[in-house]
Design a protein that fits this description.
The protein is mainly alpha-helical. It has helices spanning about 5-20, 25-35, 40-60. The protein is flat and about 35 Å long.
């Protein structure tokens, strides 16, 4: 979970209580894509979920270096 999990949890808890943030929304989209056997969409949803978490952390920790962009377009495709 890494060193930032508690920091992230403390930051989003009030937003979740207020109903302004629903972090499980992306997970619902991931599960729907998997049920549809749309693995490319599932991959894209996982990437979007991770990216959203990174952006939330950047708002909390602006001094942390910018994350490197990873190209997942070929990930999971048969070769």
């Amino acid at each position: 979970f890494g060193p930032y999990m508690r920091l992230l949890s403390n930051h989003v808890a009030p937003l979740m209580r207020a109903g302004t943030m629903e972090p499980s929304g992306r997970h619902v989209a991931i599960i729907a894509a998997l049920k549809d056997k749309d693995f490319a969409r599932a991959r894209d949803e996982v990437v979007a979920d991770i990216t959203a978490t990174q952006m939330t952390l950047r708002a909390i920790c602006p001094d942390v270096p910018e994350p490197k962009t990873v190209d997942f377009t070929g990930f999971g495709k048969a070769s």
